[in-house]
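Hi,

Apologies if this is the wrong queue. I'm a grad student, and the batch job for Sulfate transporter from Odontophorus gujanensis produced an output file that my downstream script rejects. I'm not sure whether the problem is my script or the file. Here is the sequence I used:
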Amino acid sequence: FFMERKTHVKANRKEIVLAKLRKSFSCTPRKLKNFVMDFFPVLRWLPKYQCKEYIWGDIMSGLVIGIILVPQAIAYSLLAGLKPIYSLYTSFFANIIYFLMGTSRHVSVGIFSLISLMVGQVVDRELLLAGFDLNDDVIPALGHGSLQSDSQSNTTVFNLTTDRMNAECGKECYAISIATALTFVAGVYQVLMGVFRLGFVSMYLSESVLDGFATGASLTILTAQVKYLIGIKIPRSQGHGMLVITWINIFRNISQANICDIITSAICIVVLVTAKELGDRYKHKLKFPLPTELIVIVVATLVSHYGNLNEAFSSSVSGAIPTGFIAPKVPRFDLMIRVAVDALPLAVVSFVFTVSLSEMCAKKYAYTIRANQEMFAVGFCNIIPSFFHSFATSAALAKTLVKTSTGCQTQVSGVISAMVVLLVLLFLAPLFYSLQKCVLACIIIVSLRGALRKFRDLPARYHVNKVDTVVWVVTMSASALISTEIGLLVGIVFSMLCIIVRTQKPRTALLGQIQDTNFYEDDFEYENLSSVPKVKIFRFEAPLYYANRNYFLKSLYRLTDLDPNLEAARRKKYEKKEKQHLKKGNQPTVNGLGRRDTTLQLVPKQIDFQALVVDCSSIPFLDTTGVNTLKEILKDYKELNISVLLACCNPSVIDSLKRGGYFGKDSRSMQEMLFYSIHNAVWFAKDQN
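Support response: The file is valid. Your script probably expects a header line. Output copied below for reference.
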């Protein structure tokens, strides 16, 4: 039977473009209102806020996240190479802006270890190029409410007041200038991606690439914190191979380890890991997770302060954290040019993690998000805070899971978390002066448990898909051993190469008929399949294009045990030899040749099939080379009196064949060459024979 195609009316593209432009640039009060409400989703959902139903869950989750945010913000400042005050600024502004612009009710946007690491690597590189010393272990003495130091130590002079902070621009000022410039450019990239609807870029970051990238970065983070754990003073490694260089420096200086820091680190890690494991085991019985990090920080600060650990044992401490807000400052344009390339992977990673977590929460709690608006939200979470001495942000998985488990209902919980951070910023920050850096390092390392546990899942991952496992290993290794940015690029390129290789050498098979049915399957994979007499059925499980043309032909010739080109050449030689013998008057004896001249190479091969059916159900598209390849086998097999029939072609493949002239000029023979099922093609071949 023949299925008639529908006739599609071709739309005038010029008119469509003009109509879209008119619609885009027209401005009416209603359209302006919708634009504002779409850009600030809070205007849509906040008036419908059900206070009695939502408020307690939002307050509880907001308080818990705020309590977690404070110690994490202080700790992650080590990763970013900045002072803790800037991490607190980042956490505060990100929560406020996402409350106004975000569409996910449950995602927690703020400071994130992976993003902090990427920022810190750029900051360290630029500081080194500017001639600053990367050693951050020198802590000036605190006296009479101010933190004072000389210009030779590359530190900043602060006036610790509740309303303002004056600073001389030294190492710290330059570091935050780099971070804000990087953050601003990353935010601009994200907004531009939203304007031009480039969210599809995230599709090229597969789960294996993201997991491998996060795990490799976690190893880098872990390595960077070891010097704080054991209290040694080594230069902060920079550039490619940071992980290896850092470990070499650690072992070279292991004799300088600080016993006080080692003991403190051991105690903190045991307490944190034990609390986390107990929390995971009994989380169904706990209404909210225990604020273990905050408890550890408070106890450790009190012990360090009253035990005078800094002076008595030379234990490195956080130092003074000023209160209040610094006056806004426009990010430096000259630094933006220097970090423009570094901002691109930062923007992509930040966006991908935010959108993937938002989609995960939306699917779990049955609501929808707008990915493009999420890109705008995270973009402005970077652009606006960059004027207020903040650095790049992203959604964080651990805090998002805590947020959902503590009763979060809407984005209002983010405002509550911001108020907790604001309380610390205005009043409590100086209390953390005596907090040891090794305690912060412990918090960072324990927070990496989830990413490091991916190694335990490696056998299961390998069992599910070997190629994805290889992608994970390559991405993880490149991220850890080279650098995070190059590791991400290597992961993307390698995963694409894997896809290309898999399409270059896909599965091919000869099909047999399932007994007493009209269905056909792989004769190599299944038992009790019957072959069809005089018919070969070939399946190719990939698009047929220029890169796999040769593999298609080789597989077809190998499985059918017939190369039509060689067979045609053999027949021509046979015919030529036969004519020569007939001219000489020799009597033909065997296949027309004399006994002495008979050779196996010239005897035509006995072909056991007269029709070749190509199952095109797994061929999604053809390019010009693919069409020419099918035309080539049609011509080659026709010379051997073997008909080639195509089955199960999709409309795209059929259109490509028509445009390529496969069915002839007027496509009259299409009904005898194209079939909508393998069984129809087989029956036609039998009738033809």
